[in-house]
Amino acid sequence: MTSNVTISKGVFDFLAELKKNNNRDWFEAHKPTFKKHKSDVKSFLEAVKDRLNHHDEIEKMKLFRIYRDVRFSKDKTPYKAHFAGSFSRLGAHLRGGYYLHLKPGESFLATGFWAPNKEDLLRIRKELEMDASEFREVINQKELKTIWGELSGDEVKTAPKGFDKEHSDIDLIRKKQFVFTHKFSDKEVLSSSFIDEVDKSYRAIRPYFDLMSDILTTNLNGESIL
């Protein structure tokens, strides 16, 4: 097991200053500081990945770039005032992803399905249309619900095309995303136990990932499509 790698207060101090000075001149002048904090955050993500691999199989870890793509945005500030990383599960048989977002006053974890392709989305909706009881049982498990709260994500206003808007499970069927989030205070993020809480949270989502992986790798008869 990895030792307790931590997020330093300096990371948040830098991000707070970047938010107030979001321009290229300031950033270039403070680039060595940025590189140090980026390296520290990457080390933290590597430690999270190591923890995850004790109870899951992670194919890829990604530390997102701090540079913003401003081509199609009204907000022309060149940098993100946060650090973020993601962890992708291994192969076609393990579905779902983990996300970690570090920002003063706005840190959170997220897990689930942000942008399922149209085939996966239809498969999930068909499953829920047929029988949503197991899905509801899993997302209402005590530990999962205590840590992650309610399922969230964008949804259509009434019903997706081809589905009955009066269906008893339309609240689930209309979803376009199937996501859970867990917010953390700055004090929690900077504590020595933060990595333990991250790992505990990711462990708690596993029954949901197991169910969704089963759904997305089988047809409506439960036969493997891999």
UniProtKB/TrEMBL annotation:
<dbReference type="Pfam" id="PF09365">
    <property type="entry name" value="DUF2461"/>
</dbReference>
<dbReference type="InterPro" id="IPR015996">
    <property type="entry name" value="UCP028451"/>
</dbReference>
<protein>
    <recommendedName>
        <fullName>TIGR02453 family protein</fullName>
    </recommendedName>
</protein>
<dbReference type="InterPro" id="IPR012808">
    <property type="entry name" value="CHP02453"/>
</dbReference>
